[in-house]
Design goal:
614 residues, alpha/beta, 8-stranded parallel sheet, 6-stranded mixed sheet, binds ligand FHN
């Protein structure tokens, strides 16, 4: 065996192992992780009174902490790359050995108050922690299981109680993550990793549910004071009667508590998008959140040094708030309860920005524009608009299309220094000036004061002549082709998402974007696409008014995600510069792509980028 295992070898081994057990072979087809999310349309979204605080607070801490944290990505001296809390699955750890490992769990460096204070310093208003993850181990005292921190580890500390007390003392909201479907160490639990008992049928899930889930969720709802969120996960395949029962428990014991959509069955108070999904366009759900990681893995993994910078964290928070959502950022303590230094530093540093720019985050309503900009994004509150500048534009100028209302003043939020602007007809120009010679916050924010709330009626992508613009697949009108969502993992458990136009039926097919040209002129056009072998050599025409350009597309090859997920392989995305296109006139126009000589089903077109060409 190699020293290091990739998820590919591990998954392949697990699948064949599962198939070697008759019970698994017939009844338990392996599901993709995204199939397990159980995303469904909610009927109850927007009705729970608790959604007011949820939407206002915007920012929460997620914590993945369990036995897997003590392993830190290593089993018997071997490193398993991927999300750490899945190590039992990746390393095929036998159930007995996994359970016995609990004796090594010693949270002697866990200080609940310190953790809550860190969340506060980061600007977070709620903590949601894994009370029980898929491994089945309870981080709390439970009467119905021996596989708990209080009974199976030497420490015997009820860690959830310690956290609940610290949250109460510090005025922090508390939520519990509970894996209601998957339980890898329970013989009747979802995706049990051992051999099912003689005579097992899938209906026996009911035994696990009634004897473990119902009592444990009840314990969490009754023994730890007020709970703000019960965060369920991976319901995929679970009958909706179980989701209904869980909802009933929450309503009975803690009616103020919110429940996320991963309870399954179409229940829940708000939608949790797919992991790590920062949506480029405002999602359809009324109330939603994105859950994200500080590095790659949710739980601690010794090798994972891919820490998001403080600025990246703030940008992702702003992007989510700008699209009207809430952001929950995860940290993974080590088994001893201490946090990796980078996680602490990054949260403290990003927290300084969040605290000093709270006015532009908390209680905001998102951007009046459905999509963000390459230079940054917007949030709004009442008559005020906040321009979050991620990338200082080359000549210090920003240009925005019609806000529908007069701007009365503009200033930097951090020091109230006035910012120059002109509002001529329908175009607003904001003059940030030079970036040089001043001490800027991580993300400078311009506060625009308006006479009334902005009334944006035009959502066409703005081509401003100053900064690059991206035309996304999801914004296109389509004829003879389709838009699809695609999710893939770049590493095991690390999700990416995009939308792409595909299945071009004939040379009459076309994808058309409305664009709002604020500055006519020359633009460098590039596209991002994937292309399978049979479509290689297709020719395409891109047209805007009387101007057009022609290009050919080549095979883009496969990415490695087929190693981690069941299902067909995914083509890699290519980014290619096509050349310079003249857009001779300002105002509302259309840009369209059509096949000129179609091979196979053509490309998967992700986006078109227009960059001012000077
Ligand atoms: O399988 C889990 C994973 O371990 C992690 O807890 C994430 C967090 O959203 N949820 C599931 C996968 O989506």
């Amino acid at each position: 065996m190699n020293k290091y295992h990739t998820p590919f070898t591990v998954c392949a081994a697990v699948v064949s192992l599962l198939l070697s057990f008759p019970a698994f072979a017939s009844a338990e087809k392996e599901k993709g992780m995204d199939e397990m999310w159980g995303e469904e349309k909610l009927s109850t979204t927007g009705q729970h009174p608790g959604l007011k605080w949820f939407e206002d607070d915007k920012y929460a801490m997620f914590i993945h902490w369990g036995l897997y944290s003590e392993m830190g990505g290593v089993w018997k001296g071997e490193t398993y790359y991927g999300i750490g809390e899945w190590i039992m699955h990746m390393a095929e750890i036998p159930v007995d050995e996994y359970k016995a490992y609990a004796k090594n769990f010693n949270p002697d460096k866990f200080d609940a108050t310190e953790l809550v204070k860190l969340a506060k310093a980061a600007g977070m208003k709620t903590i949601v922690i894994t009370a029980k993850h898929h491994e089945g181990f309870a981080m709390f005292d439970s009467e119905v299981s021996d596989f708990t921190v209080t009974k199976a580890t030497p420490s015997k500390r009820d860690l959830m109680k310690e956290l609940a007390d610290a949250c109460e003392a510090e005025g922090m909201r508390l939520g519990f993550y509970y894996s209601q479907n998957q339980d890898w160490t329970e013989p009747y639990g979802g995706n049990y990793k051992g051999r099912r008992p003689q005579g097992y049928t899938p209906a026996d899930f009911n035994i696990y549910f009634q004897e473990k889930v119902v009592p444990q969720v009840t314990e969490l709802l009754t023994n730890y004071g007020p709970i703000s969120i019960i965060w369920f996960d991976t319901p995929g395949g679970m009958d909706r009667k179980y989701s209904a029962k869980l909802m009933e428990l929450v309503q009975k014991y803690q009616p103020d508590c919110l429940v996320n959509s991963r309870i399954g069955g179409g229940y829940g108070d708000y939608v949790s998008l797919g992991d790590m999904h920062i949506p480029a366009i405002r999602p359809k759900a009324d109330v939603w959140e994105t859950v994200d990681t500080t590095n790659n893995s949710w739980s601690y993994a010794w090798y994972d040094q891919n820490w998001k910078s403080p600025k990246t964290i703030c940008e992702r928070l702003v992007r989510v708030a700008a699209r009207g959502g809430s952001y929950m950022l995860n940290v993974g303590p080590k088994g001893d309860g201490s946090l990796p230094e980078n996680a602490v530093e990054t949260l403290e540093k990003s927290g300084e920005w969040v605290q000093s720019h709270g006015e532009a985050i908390y209680g905001t309503s998102g951007s009046p524009f459905d999509q963000g900009f390459s230079w940054g994004d917007l949030t709004s509150k009442g008559n005020d608009l906040y321009l979050h500048v991620f990338d200082w534009p080359a000549d210090g100028q920003l240009r925005l299309a019609d806000l529908g209302v007069k701007v009365t003043a503009a200033e930097f939020l951090h020091d109230s220094a006035a910012v120059g602007f002109t509002q001529d007809g329908s175009i607003l120009e904001v003059n940030l000036g030079s970036q040089v010679g001043r001490d800027w916050p991580l993300i400078p924010v311009v506060k625009l004061k308006l006479y009334a709330p902005a009334q944006v009626t035009e959502q066409a992508t703005q081509i401003d002549g100053l900064t690059p613009a991206t035309l996304l697949a999801k914004m296109a009108s389509l004829k003879g082709c389709k838009v699809r969502e695609r999710r893939w993992m770049e590493k095991f458990g690390e999700w990416k998402h995009d939308y792409f136009v595909q299945d071009w039926k004939s040379e009459n097919a076309k994808a058309t974007w409305d664009i709002n040209v604020l500055d006519a002129g020359e633009y460098l056009v590039s596209i991002e696409y994937s292309c399978e072998n049979e479509a290689a050599g297709s020719e395409w025409t891109l047209t805007c008014g009387d101007e057009s350009m022609t290009f050919v597309t080549y095979e883009s090859g496969f990415d490695p995600s087929k190693s981690f997920q069941p299902g067909p392989p995914r083509e890699r995305n290519f980014k290619v510069d096509l050349g310079v296109l003249e857009i001779p006139e300002g105002g509302l126009q259309q840009l369209e792509i059509t096949p000129r000589n179609l091979k196979g089903k053509g490309i998967g077109l992700v986006s078109i980028r227009l960059e001012p060409y000077r």
